[in-house]
Amino acid sequence: MLVLAPARCRIWIASGARREEAGQNGVVSRRESGQERRGPSERSAIEPFYVMEVMRAAAEREASGLEVLHLEVGQPSTSAPQVVLAAAAEALANNKLGYTEALGLPELRQAISDWYALEYKVIVPVEQIIVTTGASGSCVLAFLTLWDPGARVGVLEPGYPCYRNDLQTFGVQAVPIPVGPESDYRPTRAQLDAVGHLDGLIIASPSNPTGTVLRRSDLQMLLDWSSEAGAALVVDEIYHGITYDEPAVSVLELMDQTATSNPTVLVFNSFSKLFSMTGWRLGWIVAPRNLMTPLERLAQNLTIAPPTLSQMAGTKAFQAVAESQANVERYRINRDLVIDGLRRAGITAFAPPDGGFYVWCDVSHLLSSEIPDSKALSTTWLDQIGVAVTPGIDFDPQRGHRFIRFSYAGEPHEMTEAMQRITTWIQSTGDQIR
Ligand SMILES: Cc1ncc(COP(=O)(O)O)c(C=O)c1O
Q1: What is the pTM of this model?
Q2: Hey, what domains does the chain have and what are their CATH numbers?
Q3: Mutate to test the pocket of ligand 1, among 160, 212, 311 (most ligand atoms within 8 A of CB)
Q4: Sequence-distant (≥ 6) Cβ neighbours of residue 30 within 8 angstroms
Q5: N or C: which terminus of the chain carries fewer CB neighbours within 10 A?
Q6: Other beta carbons within 10 Å of 36
């Protein structure tokens, strides 16, 4: 008997077939396929966030009973601070956990403002703070608020991949600004002037993946450039608090929040790193007053509000000074273990990080016809020695195939063991590589 599938069902089958036909990333251009629109959209055809793919491969290995040393993901191995856990338990027991305002819980916004006053001696009015679903949520809100399709926005290479990928989804052109060891991975004024008109620049300090911390003079240069170029400056300060020599300077320290002629500067931060709260999905943006209404309207419509439980508990995070400092001390130990271990393994082309918890290494000398790039190297290390690391193409599409990012956010014994395994692997495969 012939059964006619309902129209919706036919579309599903057709798009399923197209995904198969499309191959790995499941995306076929509508124009190329010549078919009428059935999705996925062209704007969704962005690069994966490769570290998440490595995480998945590592999880599959663990599910099959094999061990993995995690140096791939930028995720603290510690839990959220005790005060946060206690506040969450209390909120679960006593609160209905309804929506909050789209801008976030007033007491959390106040706690963030107080933190700026205490840590940076900067007045950040509560009215200029919006709570977000992590710095990732900040990217979506900020980029949509700042730039229309067709805008040109500078991103550093190497730099955090989601900036570039998010911009592409929004129809904004990500203009690469290559930085390297010659400038300690800092952009120069000459480079910014040379790339043509930009509508904005996105930069992280401390940087993921290089660990470079922008100095006061770097930030002043960026502010001057931003004013003169009429370009918005987005500074991602998610790794603030995790530095090894001096505290990182916030760009907000260099600005008079009450002045009327400030350049357009947005600052992101998050509870994910310093407070070990990656899964709580909580962050914030500090923005100029004239951008607060559009930010709020986008937040209302896109997510309504960040998770209430996280907001209630996160309000207490700033009290956890001792715990977060202990974590930073552990990262310092890990940093030294990894740096020494890499050198002993013969991996020497890296700049020791001043902040964050990553080392960005040139591994060209380990590549061969069997292992032609760092993606193949990371797959080999996961398969053969159970060490998960992130291939550099995530951070630099041009040169990243020669680089690996090591994350040292885990436990010291994992760092020691991973470095030992890599050293042994290099020694045992050295003859083939040479
Ligand atoms: C530089 C940078 N910005 C933003 C994020 C996103 O962080 P989250 O959304 O967890 O706050 C990350 C995560 O690793 C990051 O490294």
Answers
A1: 0.90
A2: 50-79+321-428 (3.40.640.10), 82-319 (3.40.640.10)
A3: 160
A4: 37, 42
A5: N
A6: 8
